[in-house]
Design goal:
The chain has a two-stranded antiparallel sheet with strand order 1-2. The chain has a two-stranded antiparallel sheet with strand order 3-4. The protein has 159 residues and is mostly helical. The chain has one domain: Orthogonal Bundle (Arc Repressor Mutant, subunit A). It is built from five helices and six strands. The protein is elongated, with a radius of gyration of 17 Å.
Length: 159
């Protein structure tokens, strides 16, 4: 899980919540990540860390793509995963296509619709990439939780 409970009076940190998509609220981002592991999010908290990995000069793996992969894992559909994030099917498909082309093997395998409808699943490589990203995100959040807490305690209160 990409969150860390610091202590009873401190904030809960979810690194992906603020960075999924500008059009998606923090609450929606938390909900988009919730089903697989019942992740927690302190709504209204502004202090968090985001992990964005540069995979070469033109490919990034960050909270948005990780949430999309997680959504595909949960729903079995690129369209449903995109809708869950407030994203069009075209945009979701573009992001998956970018990831599929960046790795030696595709991360998502999709079948076309028809009488029974289409679907999408994460490949073994896709599962490994998503699990690795979530693990790195959790470790990064744990590593900086104390420093984030310090920064948050030094911020001016909201007016």
């Amino acid at each position: 899980m990409p969150w860390t409970q610091v202590d009873e009076r401190r904030r809960t940190i979810l690194s992906a919540a603020g960075m999924i998509d500008d059009a998606v609220s923090r609450r929606d981002a938390c909900e988009a990540l919730r089903p697989p592991a019942k992740r927690r999010c302190a709504l209204g908290e502004d202090t968090s860390i985001s992990l964005r990995i540069e995979l070469g000069s033109d490919t990034l793996l960050g909270p948005g793509k990780a949430a999309l992969l997680s959504g595909i894992r949960d729903t079995g559909s690129i369209a449903a995963a995109g809708r869950r994030m407030g994203m069009s099917y075209k945009r979701a498909w573009y992001l998956i296509d970018t990831l599929n082309k960046a790795f030696q093997e595709p991360l998502v395998s999709a079948s076309k619709g028809g009488r029974r409808g289409g679907g999408a699943i994460l490949t073994r490589t896709g599962d490994a990439i998503l699990d690795s990203y979530l693990r790195m995100e959790r470790l990064a959040s744990e590593a900086v939780a104390g420093e984030l807490d310090l920064l948050a305690s030094l911020m001016k209160p909201d007016s």
